[in-house]
Amino acid sequence: MQLQAISLRQVRFFVALAEAGNFSRAAEKMAISQPALSSAIRQVETLMGLRLFDRTTHRVTLTSAGLSFLPHAQRLLTTADNAFRDMGEAAHRGRTTIRIGAIPSTFPAIARAMATLDQDAAGVSLHLADGKSDELIADLHRGRIDLAICVCGRVEDGLLADLLVEDEMLLVVPVGHALDGVDSLLWSRLEGQEIVHFAGGSIGDLSRAAMRQHNLEPSSRYQVDQTDSLFGIIAGGLAVGVMPRLYTRRFAPEQVSLVSLVQPAIRRRIVMLRRKALAEEHPLGAWVADQLTPLLPGLLASH
User: Fold this and answer.
1) How far is CA 227 from the centre of its chain?
2) Please, which residues have CB within 8 angstroms of residue 178's CB and are 6 or more apart in sequence?
3) Cα 219 from Cα 233, distance rounded (Å)
């Protein structure tokens, strides 16, 4: 199989067709004629010795081989595009770009950790963007980012994880509530309470699972996905809330009180993820990870 003979241009044609599902739309996107695109796809299939697409009159779909090839092709193109941009920045500014993705609740700690690094002396330029954990992990696999700081249970193949902190789920109640001042509380003691929590993502999954164990139902009246929304409902006395400790750092202590929830104590694992091959592919990316990893646990725990 002569994979080394496939050009980046041909890979771009393959990805464009896979994403468009139509020769005409893919050809228009790539600014070439439809016959030229069809010829390029045939060349790729010949070089690989595999049929990548099933073709019908109106649509093309990926074969099982094509489905397996697609994420690798996407990662290759992303890595190449990043490399071209990085070469330009390195040539003009003498710096290597390191892309970091993180869940929003970790940003204050990450910003403080990044501020301790002398980026000029190290010859790096750190880029930081937020996202949801599953999106960040997908971006890491595709090569869009070099490091991901996110919630992770099982570490997927091809990745390495450093545990940064176990972020416990807390009960948040308005000041003056009957549970205000309680240090810890059994989940079962929440029976009869109007409980609001983040409906989506890993936080929603964790809190729903804990509530199901004790036959508790989350509020059907209040549905939120933003921290400020949840805080407003709690501070207004409309409900009690369940959320991770990191999300409570902005809450005013004169308005809400935090209570540890036990039996079970629920914690989400916040880790730094990197590709196993990062040290070989991007040595300065691995160096940045090694610098940030020992700093972040203390900074995250202090928030």
Assistant:
1) 18
2) none
3) 11
**Domain coordinates of the chain in residue numbers?**
3-69, 75-164+269-301, 166-268
Q: Which whole number is the average pLDDT over 106-119?
A: 94
pLDDT in tens, 143-160: 889 999 999 888 988 899
Record: fold of 3-69: Arc Repressor Mutant, subunit A (1.10.10)
Please name the helix (run of DSSP H) or strand (run of DSSP E) that holds residue 78, with its range, or none: helix 64-93
Q: Which has more pLDDT, 201 or 192?
A: 192
C-alpha radius of gyration, the chain, whole number = 24
E strands within 87-123? 96-102
The token pair at 161 is: 């994880």
* Residue whose structure tokens are 């241009």: 9
Check if the beta carbon of residue 152 is closer than 8 Å to that of residue 161.
yes
User: Which residue in this structure is represented by tokens 């992990």?
Assistant: 137
Structural fold of domain 75-164+269-301: D-Maltodextrin-Binding Protein; domain 2 (3.40.190)
Q: What is the pLDDT of residues 32-75, one digit of tens each?
A: 998 899 998 998 888 888 899 998 877 889 999 999 889 888 88
pLDDT digits (tens, 9 = 90+) for 243-294: 899 988 878 788 899 999 998 888 999 999 999 988 888 888 999 999 999 9
Gap between the Cα atoms of 124 and 79, Å rounded: 17
Q: How many other CB atoms sit within 10 Å of the CB of residue 179? A: 16
* C-alpha pair distances (Å), 87 with each of 79, 127, 282: 12, 15, 13
Residue closest to 189 by CA, chosen among 262, 127, 291, 126: 262
Q: Sort 60 into a burial class: Cβ within 10 Å, 0-12 / 13-18 / 19+.
A: buried
